[in-house]
Fold this sequence. Notes:
This protein is mostly helical. It has helices at 7-20, 22-28, 32-41, 57-97, 100-128, 132-155, 159-181, 183-186, 188-191, 204-227, 229-236, 239-264, 267-275, 279-314, 316-319, 325-349, 357-378, 380-411, and strands at 45-47, 53-55.
Amino acid sequence: xxxxxxxxxxxxxxxxxxxxxxxxxxxxxxxxxxxxxxxxxxxxxxxxxxxxxxxxxxxxxxxxxxxxxxxxxxxxxxxxxxxxxxxxxxxxxxxxxxxxxxxxxxxxxxxxxxxxxxxxxxxxxxxxxxxxxxxxxxxxxxxxxxxxxxxxxxxxxxxxxxxxxxxxxxxxxxxxxxxxxxxxxxxxxxxxxxxxxxxxxxxxxxxxxxxxxxxxxxxxxxxxxxxxxxxxxxxxxxxxxxxxxxxxxxxxxxxxxxxxxxxxxxxxxxxxxxxxxxxxxxxxxxxxxxxxxxxxxxxxxxxxxxxxxxxxxxxxxxxxxxxxxxxxxxxxxxxxxxxxxxxxxxxxxxxxxxxxxxxxxxxxxxxxxxxxxxxxxxxxxxxxxxxxxxxxxxxxxxxxxxxxxxxxxxxx
Length: 412
């Protein structure tokens, strides 16, 4: 990106790339509530060689209800994405581009992300019913494919094409994996009587629908607390400042993404332990997982802090695009805050509980406003400091709320 794109285009790249990564965010974020619900029902189920869930009729019906409900909820989100990001984003940024190619690539990229959002419930059900290992293998292939797609577009010096290729590969690999290995699950929504997925809060579908709405507020706050800053900088300070912030953000959130993936793999097991009332065992497993997650984050964060020095020496075209070391440290502090907020939310969510929603949303809002306000006034470095400092300060009262809530749930 730094060597192939004009500085004026780099901010646009990170803005659209943030839309592409919304698909992964949906899978690693709001869909975890579907994973938890599925893990509570999955004890008597197994996957057959033909990609069909086998086992008790009651459990299979419950999984079908969850899938049907999640698909309806994700369909609404997909339509909102097309309307707000596809149409709204084109309206905001197209006048600066004066190109039909911009409109085509922007809108079609948004449509591909919307399609992926509809795939996410199937992936979440797979993860919650014991298919974590093959799913993670698919994600590894998917990550490599997305990276190659991005490089292909960037080497043609086309930011929008790079993002479109990444979105296309992202959908293609996940969709192909489902068709080839889990085709039986794809038929479940068409065979489910609609009355089983009623919206009444006492039904399984109704409970999932309510929890998804509450959980979405928390997850969207976690995602957009950092992702909103670059688009605002693009409008207020231009593509150069937005590009520098976006590049540094990509570096500093990488440790948090890696650590979150480590934690995410444990979530189905957490839900199963809570469902069987093995609460002390669950708490010990959760502490161990969070400790490992922090070690992963710290190791990767040290590498990120050392990276600018290496880049300036061996790859100066990239090194000069990275923000100064204090700004990197501040953004790593913000990434750590987001990681701990996710860990606290995941712990409570294992009980199908979103009690951490309000403090997490308030902390994320403070991070977004801190970064945007400082960035509009002082540019990318100021945005980084405002974002990180707000996150660390907001983490303190949130930790206090979580400590009290944890003691309450374990006693009950």
